[in-house]
Amino acid sequence: MIIQAARLRTNLDLAELTRHVFAGPANEEVVPLYGGPEDLVAMVDDAKAAGKPYAIRHLKISPAEPMTRTQLGALLCDLGAEFGFPPDRCVVIEHCKPRVGGKGYERHWHVLVPEYDPVRRRVLNAHWMRPRQEKIARLAELRLGHAPVIGRWNAAVVRALVAADDEVAAAEVAKLACAPRPESAYSGRQHQAAARQGIALPEAQATVTAVWQQSASAAAFSAALRDLGMTVRAGDKDRTWIIETDGSDGGAPVLVGALHRLLRQPKRAVDARMRAAAPDLASQDSAIIRPGEAAAQGGGSVGTAFKEEHDVTANTNGPIR
Q1: What torsion do the CA atoms of 286, 288, 292, 295 make, to the nearest 10 degrees?
Q2: What is the dihedral of CA 2, 259, 202, 72, to 10 degrees?
Q3: Which contiguous run of DSSP H or E holds residue 116?
Q4: Average pLDDT, integer, range 120-144
Q5: Could you state, in order of their start, the residue ranges of all structural domains in the chain?
Q6: Binning pLDDT at 50, 70 and 90, where does residue 180 land?
Q7: Alpha helix (H) residue ranges in the chain
Q8: Mean pLDDT value of segment 131-156
Q9: What is residue 192's predicted lDDT score, i.e. its pLDDT?
Q10: Which of 128, 129, 192, 256 shows the smallest number of beta carbons within 10 Å?
Q11: Pick from 73, 54, 52, 39: which is nearest to 5 by CA?
Q12: Distances (CA, A) of 167 to 128, 157, 159, 163, 286
């Protein structure tokens, strides 16, 4: 189970957020379970009236295995107890869409919580959001009998569980600490930016992975990508290769992501395969730019695009996709 969160400012595009959570055109089914658009307006109005910078906490709950709405209710109670909000003040919307590659549960939930409580005159707790979200997710997995997801904050979660005298849960989460730390294929901000350009990153990731697996060489990989309207080039970071759209539709190239992250493979292994093909690719149309040549050939900087690669709980004005 993955729980993501974003703090949305009072000057957010409320119309965009409302369209995304209550319409969700990419979903097969959208079911409002609790609350409506007028509640989101009230959250923004309350925060503005109190002069608070943040209006809405946007949570996205994505279980890897089936979960009922009753079980969702129990999870919301856990999150409310952890961060200090009454579950009955949430706006909850259920989305259903098939997962790329058939992996994961087809349903996920968007939960919108007021950042400011005008009755208690208190703001919602945001301290160490990510580790605390992972703790709630791991506990829910244990309670539901789901296979645990390897998180990025295992050690912090173990310490919190030990401090709470939950030795059984702490021991289970401690087993995950030996596994490689997961890296996301793309950040929430990249997902949002690409979606605004009409690119579905999950589908693009699946396409890049399939082409990589079917290509006998990096040269063949590059050629196949060009046929699909994408290019690969060296990034600004050492041993990093970047996938972009080629702009053939008349627009500017759009960043898809770092190749090793999209493939979920070690950076060194991907770089070694790409470097081995560099001499052969030199005679082609520069679809691949060798490491060190990006600046000389006018390659744009992607440093800022990856600056918050893992910040799924970043302060943002966009909905979590």
Answers
A1: 60
A2: 0
A3: strand 116-117
A4: 94
A5: 2-182, 188-306
A6: low
A7: 14-22, 37-49, 69-83, 129-144, 154-163, 167-174, 188-196, 201-214, 218-227, 259-263, 267-276, 278-281
A8: 92
A9: 62
A10: 128
A11: 54
A12: 21, 12, 10, 9, 57
CA distance 283 to 204: 27
Which positions ≥6 away from 68 have C-beta within 8 Å? none
Question: Cα 280 from chain centroid?
Answer: 36
Q: Which two tokens stand for residue 171?
A: 């021991």
**Alpha-carbon dihedral sign for residues 184, 190, 194, 196:** positive
Angle at 306 between CA 267 and CA 95, to 5 degrees: 100
- pLDDT tens column, 272-290: 988 876 555 443 434 443 4
- Tell the CATH topology of 2-182: BirA Bifunctional Protein; domain 2 (3.30.930)
- pLDDT tens, position by position, 55-85: 999 999 999 999 999 999 999 999 999 999 9
Q: Rg of the Cα trace of the chain?
A: 22
End-to-end CA distance of the chain: 16
Which residue bears the tokens 């005679």? Answer: 283
Identity of residue 220: A
As a whole number of angstroms, the distance between CA 249 and CA 25 comes to 23
pLDDT over 90 percentage in the chain: 47
103-115 pLDDT, tens digit per residue, is: 678 999 999 999 9
Give the number of other Cβ atoms within 10 Å of residue 163's Cβ: 9
* Residue the block writes with tokens 């053939």: 248
d(CA 250, CA 48): 41
